[in-house]
Amino acid sequence: FKGGDTCEYLLSSGRFLGEKVWQPHSCMMHKYKNSEAKNCLIDKHVVFIGDSRIRQLFYSFIKLINPQVKEEGIKHGNIPFEDKSASIKVDFLWYPEVNGSMRQRIKSWTEGSVAKPHIIVVGAATWSIKIHNGSSEALAQYKINITSIAPLLEKLAISSDVYWVLQDPVYEDMLSESRKMITNEKIDAYNEAAVRILNSSSRNSKAKVKVFSVSKLIAQETIMKSADGLHLPESSRDTNAMILMNVYCNKIMKPIDGSCCQPQPPLTLIQKIAFCFFTLSIIGYLIISLIHRNNYRKNKSCTDLESGEEKKPSISTPNVSTLEMLLQCFCKLGLIMTYFYLCDRANLFMKENKFYTHSSFFIPIVYILVLGVFYTENTKETKLLNREQTDEWKGWMQLVILIYHISGASTFLPVYMHIRVLVAAYLFQTGYGHFSYFWIKGDFGVYRVCQVLFRLNFLVVVLCIVMDRPYQFYYFVPLVTVWFMIIYATLAVWPQIVQKKANGNCLWHFGLLLKLICLLTCIYFLSYSQGAFEKIFSFWPLSKCFELNGNVYEWWFRWKLDRYVVFHGMLFAFIYLALQKRQMISEGKGDPLFSNRVSNVLLFISIVSFLTYSIWASSCKNKTECNELHPSVSVVQILAFVLIRNIPGYVRSVYSSFFAWFGKISLELFICQYHIWLAADTKGILVLIPGYPMFNVLVSTFIFVCVAHEISQITNDLAQIVVPKDNSTLLKRLLCIAGFFSGLHFFSAMQDQSRH
């Protein structure tokens, strides 16, 4: 930990990921769009002073505001630019040498009530080398001139952002005869003089001229692609302009994926209350543990003085009380949440941008598949989609999704479309699993509902408080929660149709099908009526849960993307359980699901369907068009996989314990990755060990998986305490939970008011 000033890193160090993607040391750089650049620079005046290299930077900078700008105008003269819609002025002033003229211009901004530019970018040296043929006298004069300009720049730096751009290296072999005297040795001498004078002057001054030295590093990698050996290729100067934009705008716009130059956000009122609560829980647990340990020692073994034998105490082990278990859970959770906060809210650990390559995605996929096959065991039961198999399914899907996120593979459309199917498969399992439970058990009690809702939402609610994020930010949990409530409402509403009732009269099956048709109709209507959907979820208190950035559009988009797959899961469960009841399928160990002929035909159709979908997804050219088709066709590959996995008896009889282990904590893995594996709310990668990417991934992954596993256990323990089976006790707990959320809403309103 070298301090929290990531601006220093952004301006001075970094490396290339691939050919064109620049990665600053320790922080993430946001790619500004034209609209964002305008919003940041509204009513601002920016000035670039220098030679032709600074002119290049000037053009790249104004193209971030208006991409239509062409590089026209006087080469050796001033060039103005103005965007009247945002009242932005950007000027290039031609001063190719650091001399009296440049000093006079800079001095004019320090005198009287003259309007000062908000951003000043200065740099020059190559003309001095060229005109004076690289003489030592010219270097001495350069030092004198910078020494006279430095105090003026520092005076401007009190109210403006001032950047001194160091000279980029040249590609000497490509320089024309008139520029042969411009050598990298001379450039280094001029840069060294500028840095020494500016730094020594800044020690005694509060205002600091920022040295823009990162362009030197960028040029070292790209100058050989220069057209003349002196001027940078377009991609490199565009990178420099984007760095400038990040340095100035990140603290104003606060982009999630732009951690460079962003100050640590202040603690909110709710975060302070949470910190106090966890601190008290840790103190309380330590006190109770010490008391119990002391009592246990007193009651341990004591020596019988007469016989000299050891007698066992009447109490061998202290019983863990509910209070102690509660405090123990909150103690562990408090320590874990501290780690979450340090990783993704404090400027303690480094963060880096993602960079996709095919190898970074496919090699880890092959690796985990080999591991998964290696840990193969026999299943306890051989039913279709048995518990071990569904855990395995969740596990390998979650691992693939994690690799997809850390590798940044969303930029590669075929991978994106296949990952969309995996997310849909999770929701398919939601429909299948909850329908099967309600249909077979007929248990529509409050206890079951509260248990499911608690297990799904506990971690997300805690993260909303600790990480200061809205509920909808963790979009998958709201999605699964709402679909669970829809499944519950569909089956619980009168008439309640369950398997036991339907076995007595086949007409009840048609009644259930009518319910499912009504559900499908509602889904279809809401998917094509954005207005109606938004009205439903814009009512308080639903709006507090489902709004993101002031509207529910993101929630509508997420819901619409997989709108039919839960219904498909429910329908599949209904058909499967009906066939099972009538003994039309064989689920014995090693037996195919159907007769050999039917099994072979279905298996062939499933393989063809699976491959056909993959070919279609791989040929996708437009994400929007493919997303439109996805809700209707994703079920093809899901059903194909289910049949391929279950029709052959020998395949159905085994499972991967490796994948199943991850499947049991898949929800925690999905949520925890936001902050302690990835960074900047999934936009970047957490760096615990800089300079060693593979070792960093191993260490951060180990911690991440351990934390997810621990949170899963904490959630299970708390679920037993917070959601008891006794109805009267459960009612009291629900009133306490309602009070908790009321208090949370009250403090949230206070927080919003103080922000505004």
From TrEMBL:
Protein name: N-acetylneuraminate (7)9-O-acetyltransferase
InterPro entries recorded: Cas1_AcylTrans_dom, NXPE4_C
Protein family per UniProt: Belongs to the PC-esterase family. CASD1 subfamily.
Catalysed conversion reaction: a ganglioside GD3 (d18:1(4E)) + acetyl-CoA = a ganglioside Ac-O-7-GD3(d18:1(4E)) + CoA; CMP-N-acetyl-beta-neuraminate + acetyl-CoA = CMP-N-acetyl-7-O-acetyl-beta-neuraminate + CoA; CMP-N-acetyl-beta-neuraminate + acetyl-CoA = CMP-N-acetyl-9-O-acetyl-beta-neuraminate + CoA
Phylogenetic classification of the source organism: Eukaryota, Metazoa, Chordata, Craniata, Vertebrata
GO cellular component: Golgi membrane
Domain of life assignment: Eukaryota
EC number of the protein: 2.3.1.45
Record PANTHER family: N-ACETYLNEURAMINATE 9-O-ACETYLTRANSFERASE (PTHR13533:SF1)
